[in-house]
Amino acid sequence: MLRTIRCLALALAVFAMTDLPAQTPPPATPQAPPCGDAMHRQFDFWVGSWDVTGPKGEKTIGRSRVESRLGDCVIHEHWFGGGGTIGESFNIYNAATGNWEQFWVDNGGNRLHLVGGLVDGRMVLEGRHDKPDADSGLFGRERIAWTPNADGTVRQLWESSKDDGKTWTVSFDGLYHKATTPVP
């Protein structure tokens, strides 16, 4: 009996050392990138390095570097204003809501959250202030539209409302031209 057990142990040891053909896993199914669909690409026209002028191409008012980041899921802007304002925006298509969102922060302690989407070829995002005006009781609103132009420029029109969107005034009107020198 002891001899049978030794033979079985020896056979198991030899079997364990034997090279068996490796099990190959089945080929992986190619996965589409998480942000590769057309909805996530709608704001790509803004990606680039830009010199920003007034709406008629006059004096430079700032520079901007806009990058596609994090697996092409985020459009990240770096803004350098002529008046010393430095800001960044993070733009993302929210597949759960079907909207684009922008989160803007700057060196003045300001922040802005906008929501919207593509409207007639323009990216239009809008947001409401957190608190109503102390005097009127009405909420302020911000609306920004980016329009790609046939010549490769992009117009950014920022409008503000102090009466919850009844009337609007222009806060910023800039024309983004491809930069001729690198933007930091």
UniProtKB/TrEMBL annotation:
<protein>
    <recommendedName>
        <fullName>DUF1579 domain-containing protein</fullName>
    </recommendedName>
</protein>
<keyword id="KW-0732">Signal</keyword>
<feature type="signal peptide">
    <location>
        <begin position="1"/>
        <end position="22"/>
    </location>
</feature>
